[in-house]
Amino acid sequence: MKYGVVVFPGSNCDDDMIFTLSDVMQQPAVKLWHKDTDLQNCDFIFLPGGFSYGDYLRCGAIARFSPIMESVVAHGKKGGYVMGICNGFQILVESGLLDGALLRNDNRKYVCKNVFLKTVTSKTALTHSLDSQKAYQIPMAHGEGRYYASADTLKKLHDNDQILFKYCDSEGKITENSNPNGSLENIAGICNQGRNVFGMMPHPERAAQEMFGNTDGRPFFEALIA
Amino acid sequence: MESLPTFETAKKLGLLAEEFEKIKEILGRSPNFTELSIFSVMWSEHCSYKNSIVWLKKLPKESPKMLAKAGEENAGLIDIGDGLACCFKIESHNHPSALEPYQGAATGVGGINRDIFTMGARPIAQLNSLRFGNLDLEKTKWHLRGVVKGIGDYGNAFGVPTVGGEVYFDDCYNTNPLVNAFSAGIVKVGKTASAIAYGVGNPVFIVGSATGKDGIHGATFASEDITEKSNEKLPAVQVGDPFQEKLLLEATLEVIESGHLIGIQDMGAAGIICSTSEMSAKGKAGMIIDLDKVPMRQTNMKPFEILLSESQERMLIVAKKGTEKKVQAIFDKWDLNCQQIGEVTDTQRLHFYMHGELVADVPADDLVLGGGAPVYHREYREPAYFQEFKKFSIDQIAEPTENELVSIAKFLLAQPIIASKAWIYEQYDSMVGTANTSTNQPSDAAIVNVKGTRKNLVITVDCNSRYVLADPEIGTQIAVSEAARNVVCSGGEAVAITNNLNFGNPYNPEVYWQFVGAIMGMKKACEKFGTPVTGGNVSFYNQNSNTTQAKTQVGVDNAIYPTPTIGMLGILEDWANKMTLDFKKEEDLIYQIGKFENCISSSEYLYAYKKVKKSPAPAFNLDYEHKVQETIKELIKLKIIESAHDCSEGGLFVTLAESAMHRGLGFDIQTVSGFRKDAFLFGEAQSRVVVSVKPDQKIAFENFLNSKTDFCYLGKVSKNDFVVDGKLFLNSQEAKTLYQNTLPKALD
């Protein structure tokens, strides 16, 4: 599989994604420029974290209009793999590839810290090999990551088993205290109905190397490659 | 024709009578208003270092690792091996942050990063050193919330991790908070860019954001006391845009890599006039500049406003003639302005035109440091408080009872300067760049990996200004030593420093005495550790002249405590050899390396709990400190210790608590007879490190140390309780609660 990482102006986790995919996971990975429309035959498109276009309006609201996004949306609608992390998740929600919205954290602050995630559905390419009992320690870093969806949308997510991850405590319990941003039902990541588009707020690429003393993020990438 | 300004105008711009005369002499005529404004900013302390350079020159600046001399480029440059160099610097944004904390701090972060990437280095780590007033005051909370949000919003979007820092609180910073921002970047040796202009006919471009009326006379404003009227100077505070900075970073590194440039300089203090004059003076060239061509954010800007504007996210570049279109294409790619505004001449003068008229004609060299800018020897005098502080004796303080010791321990863990700073650092992205190895495994200094290698930068910022106040020379030696100790306790080798010299008004001889003492102390300590000063920043006038406010503090007038912050760079060749500060396992043995003293001077215990603010600097000896650090280095190399954490504010007890709390462990220790228990537990005598050792390494450890330096067995790592001489002080969870609640309670 060939991986593409989109670079928007203001993206700042693009290099981290490329490094994780190519240097850590030894996979072919290229950067895709926001002004282009060619996906360079990539099979799997990543939208990285950062502050695309400064995120001065609403996170991801401008990025969805960039030329590359037309191709990314078409790729996703055809069943091609697309994954957004953090700002990438916000862009996917803005572009309609994923449902719901990401609102300002309930404490109204940007928060960067380790959180724990529990897998909800195992029936996706991203989660099929993750341990559904384990609490994965993955860093988060965002000011607008409070997942919100209408009652109808939420029901749809449940009915179709589209919830990827929920915030939990170190024991794997999904509690109010382990919810770092006020997300609805502790939701940290979802997929689309076709199960080929993924979005999550926390950053598994920040926990994929031994030098960080935390490699809980590695299985997320191993799952994709397997 | 407008009439030429008089000395009255010059005075309002912050110039002295002798300086006004000198300007007339240089020009051979009276300056017009634009020219006078040019001299006033370029000769402000902020740009010219006129009141400090005589002493700064005494600092050690030599090392085989130094690739650029201090002051020669925008930031220091150190060879870190394998064809790589580290470019690093610290800079203050104190005055703007006092008035507009959010923008003041944000633009401070922007400014220091531009200093790094203008040299061709990609920033990989940021730190900051902050000082605020009394945390009980609403104004302090306003300062703190704004500064932290400003640093976070700017640094997070810019995409460089904030990996460390320090925060102190004291009444002396009530009006004058300090915001010192540090950045370090990596560049290949030989691939750096220089702030120079030469080659007649080479085009001069302004790139990045458009120029507006923000920050005019910012450099002059930073060179005076804060008064009740300072709020009227709000337009002197700039506004930051981290998105533009991120684009400017990428475009700048790309254009430097292209090889089309002669030179480049960021625009910080004093804007266009500073970059044009410094680059020209360095290349012994001149420039002819058409101010009409500068992209402007607003209409009707006057020549002096365009020249002095400190609008952020801009660079001045001189390209090779013939590459104009290629340079333009790079900035187009990043959707940034790139406008040719003039060209290089051989006149060594700067000619600025507007509407076809010559609006200023000044010699470049006379404007800059090392050229014609004035240099002053200021008068200094030992203040009376210095001897008064020395009269303190520990015997004046009754020895606390056992129960009081418990209260003191709890009090200290919750003190703002000691308590957890998570409320602050969790608002900073500490992990972007996937290179910070310290987030999950903390050390005394931050350890940041150099991408694609096993090599790491080991970085820390340090200064306890209370010690510097008590004794500027010793206190500054301690600041350098603590920085080195933090690097060493992390497994690194200290290589160089950058400094941020925050003081009061230099025209006050007692303030200047503090400054001179600090420089002499820094010199001595840097020589001892082999860490040259690669550059830095001087921030004077950190005092308020509010006449309505009674003098409430110790020290000199209403000046801040002298705060010469040290930013130290160390190298760790392999991240696998790093040392961390946390106890690892129950039953591990705890030792102190270094010796005990019956000393509580300048400790948080004495200052905040006993409320005795007048005492000398804590016990310290530079040679002994060096010896302790050499010992720690060897222990880490031999891999016979499990953790290392230096003793600082709060003394031994707080050090033990910090090492224990990280994993929710405890400790069970015995005090040593012959020392007062308050001094033993809470004293801040220097040159001490707490280490833990696996039981099976006991003999190897003790045998090694017997011939080396003083050490003392304290006790063992325990499951959960903090026990001293058999008495339970508190447990790890209780300690954590005290430690973690202070800032959220005050600020949420």
Description:
The complex is a heterodimer of chains A (226) and B (748). Chain A is 21% helix and 25% strand. Chain A is an alpha/beta fold. Chain A has a single domain (3-225), classed as Rossmann fold, CATH 3.40.50. Chain A starts with a strand and ends with a helix. In chain B, the strands form four sheets. A seven-stranded mixed sheet of chain B has the order 8-10-7-11-9-12-13. Chain B is globular and about 85 Å long. Chain B is of the alpha+beta class and 748 residues long. The N and C termini of chain B lie far apart (58 Å). The mean pLDDT of chain B is 94. In chain B, helix 18 (472-489) packs parallel to helix 19 (509-529). The interface between A and B is medium-sized, with 34 and 35 residues.
Features:
heterodimer; A: 226 residues; alpha/beta; Rossmann fold; 21% helix; B: 748 residues; alpha+beta; Phosphoribosyl-aminoimidazole Synthetase, Chain A, domain 2; 60s Ribosomal Protein L30, Chain: A; 7-stranded mixed β-sheet; 25 strands
Tell me the structural class of chain A. alpha/beta
- CATH homologous superfamily of chain A, by name? Class I glutamine amidotransferase (GATase) domain
Query: How would you sum up the major sheet of chain B?
Result: 7 strands, mixed
Strand arrangement, largest sheet of chain B?
8-10-7-11-9-12-13
Strand fraction of chain A: 15-25%
